[in-house]
Specification:
alpha/beta, Rossmann fold, 8 helices, elongated
Length: 186
């Protein structure tokens, strides 16, 4: 039975490019390449689901890097276990991993652990940075949709029988934002 290489590429956001990964997967001889543009944390990825569904025994799932497949150790191991049960090997181009050998399988498991560790360190640093910024008095989160003076202006316009849609347009906000601010301060 002939081995078919199926590629999978992922970027986290729409403004990122898949080109580097696609070039590497084509160069690796992938017959078909599936893609996603969303976070690796998400387990529900249409491109990945389609890639996995297209694999048969003796095929190979090829990724540019393990973190493109998933950022979570448990998810990576689940995928690898599913592939192994189906007789499919996993290849990571950048890390030089090929699970068709015992050494490749061990390297995959180690890289999965390090990938999960790296993600946890990033989360930890982000939380610490946010806490430090908050302690310094930095306002975190989304910029307010309306200032206090705009809310006062909206209340005056509402009392003068101006319609909510017109007030929202004048203040350049959505109706739901206007309603939320008007009800917040009552």
């Amino acid at each position: 039975m002939e081995t078919v290489r199926i590629g999978y590429a992922r970027v986290s956001t729409d403004d990122q490019s898949l080109n580097l990964q696609l070039d590497a997967l084509r160069h690796a001889g992938c017959a078909k390449i599936f893609t996603d543009k969303l976070s690796g944390k998400s387990r529900r990825r249409a491109g990945l689901d389609d890639a996995l569904a297209s694999l048969n025994a003796n095929d190979q799932l090829v990724v540019w890097r393990l973190d493109r497949l998933g950022r979570n150790f448990r998810h990576l191991v689940d995928i690898a276990d599913e592939l192994r049960e189906r007789g499919v090997n996993l290849i990571s181009i950048s890390e030089g991993i090929d699970t068709s050998s015992n050494v490749g399988e061990i390297i995959f498991r180690l890289m999965s652990v390090f990938s999960d560790f790296e993600r946890n360190v990033i989360v930890e640093r982000t939380r610490a940075g946010l806490a430090a910024a908050k302690a310094r008095g930095v306002k975190l989160g989304r910029k307010p949709g309306l200032s206090a003076s705009q809310v006062a202006q909206a209340r005056q316009l509402l009392q003068s029988d101006m319609k909510m849609n017109a007030i929202a347009r004048q203040l350049a906000v959505g109706r739901s934002t206007l309603y939320r601010y008007l009800h917040r301060e009552t």
